Amino acid sequence: MQNKTHIMNSYDVTIIGSGPGGYVAAIRCAQLGMKTALIEKYSTLGGTCLNVGCIPSKALLDSSHHYDDAIRHFEDHGIEISGDVKVSLEKMISRKDQVVAQTTSGIDFLMKKNKIEVLNGFGSFKDANHVVITKEDGSSEEIETKNVIIATGSKPANLPFITLDKERVITSTEALKLKEIPKHLLVIGGGVIGLELGQVYRRLGSEVSVIEYMDRIIPTMDKAQSKELTKSLKKQGVKFLLSHKVSGLSNNGTEVTVTATDKKDKEVTVTGDYCLVSVGRRAYTDGLKAENVGIKINERGQVTVNEHLQTNISNIYAIGDVIKGPMLAHKAEEEGVFVAEILAGQKPHIDYNLIPGVVYTWPEVASVGKTEEQLIENKVAYKAGQFPMRALGRSRASGDTDGFVKILSDAKTDEVLGVHMVGARVADLIAEAVVAMEFRASAEDISRMSHAHPTYAEAIKEAALAATDNRPLHI
Question: What's the rounded Cα separation, in Å, for the pair 34 and 103?
């Protein structure tokens, strides 16, 4: 069949990639009166986050949490179950798929509501004002556009000596649709993705071994959080090989063996039936043909942008995982809105220090602002206040007593510089810290606000009291 290319239409802005950054940018551009096109190579909108990332992993985390409660905690609450509690992984995966389908169809609705034209196919640059969309059948169409926003996201990274067969040696994408519960799941990487999916399968009965190069898990977060989460996950049966550098992997089709060296250069081997490689993600610009317009891409494969998220080509911008910074859906969303408003002539602002980070294990982990290690490194004089979740009536009532809230404030001004939490529902509680820091609150400001009793949020007030002048009420 002969390829046919024709000019399809002209737009004020074209967004390549429909993840949280891309589709939110499209909505904001449309709200601001721009004729907007959104290009997506897959058949469903929403990118990694909605299809094979944030949303499906939370669905499996919630399902596995219910099962874990049933076999480990129901009896404590006076709930007796006669007979065995059984897991249907197939039903769990099916429910996860339904959640994903509902969420992605919601994005379809938002595109129609905002009169955004969705163009299915692979978008690439012909030049700065023309984008070619290549369809699955090989045909293509060309559009004209005043501005372009690159929102092509990221893909799972890998180690150079590991072959991903996507059956036994898998990424997060395959871990979300396994046909069986692993007997022993090896997890290379102790970051967010590895820990969340590792906990899912640990709850369902897998032996789980996490192999991490650094001396602690979630190494970018506050050290106290790493320590607390390690302690909690160990209680749940997760095994950790910290300060272990993976040097090899063999896969015979039924068994995977990982070879690593510990900090004393001793070789260690671990064998399991599945291995999840979760060593981070890499910016995805493959096939974009950025060279056709001369867009600068750095040595890490990220698109280079200025403070306006503008590339070296004045009408082309980039947002989300494809540029520097933490690979977080909500960061991409903020950047999508930011660029839309820049294009509309407004003066938006993003404070990257106030973008929270969350790990959705149980207990959850959440952070915003500076860690204690960063303050020490930058020689900032600070006060620290910490309050344990076990001292809360609400935590004892629910049985979720692991964790703490830690507030770091400036030693002179008392302004809150960082808030770090581990515990039940801290993924939601961190928003209070973001609001407080956005308004440059002091620890004393938070300590004088009334917090409903009994709630997990009381730990924030108590940590603020501890940071203000070491006077928590309940310890």
Answer: 25
Residue 192's domain is classified under what CATH number?
A: 3.50.50.60
Q: Residues 192, 258: one domain?
A: yes
Per-residue pLDDT of the chain in tens (475 residues, 90 and over written 9): 445 555 569 999 999 999 999 999 999 999 999 999 999 999 999 999 999 999 999 999 999 999 999 999 999 999 999 889 999 999 999 999 999 999 999 999 999 999 999 999 999 999 999 999 999 999 999 999 999 999 999 999 999 999 999 999 999 999 999 999 999 999 999 999 999 999 999 999 999 999 999 999 999 999 999 999 999 999 999 999 999 999 999 999 999 999 999 999 999 999 999 999 999 999 999 999 999 999 999 999 999 999 999 999 999 999 999 999 999 999 999 999 999 999 999 999 999 999 999 999 999 999 999 999 999 999 999 999 999 999 999 999 999 999 999 999 999 999 999 999 999 999 999 999 999 999 999 999 999 999 999 999 999 999 999 999 888 899 8
- Strands of 219-322, DSSP E: 239-241, 245-251, 256-261, 267-272, 274-277, 281-283, 316-318
Q: Please tell me whether residue 452 adopts helix, strand or coil conformation.
A: coil
266 within some domain? yes
Is the distance from CB of 382 to CB of 391 less than 8 angstroms? Answer: no
Q: How many CA atoms lie within 13 A of 317 on its CB side?
A: 27
Instruction: State the catalytic residues.
Output: 453
**Among 155, 171, 216, 205, residue whose Cα is nearest residue 365:** 216
Are both 246 and 361 inside the same structural domain?
no
Radius of gyration of the chain (CA): 24
Instruction: Report the distance separating Cα 100 and Cα 111, nearest Å.
Output: 17
Which amino acid type is present at position 88? S
Residues 183 and 264 in one domain: yes
Q: Which one of 279, 299, 329 terminates a domain?
A: 279
Q: Do residues 382 and 449 both lie within one domain? A: yes
pTM for this model (two decimals): 0.96
Per the structure block, which two tokens stand in for 263? 């900090």
Helix/strand/coil for 15: strand
In the chain, the number of structural domains is 3
- Of 279, 295, 330, the last residue of a domain is 279
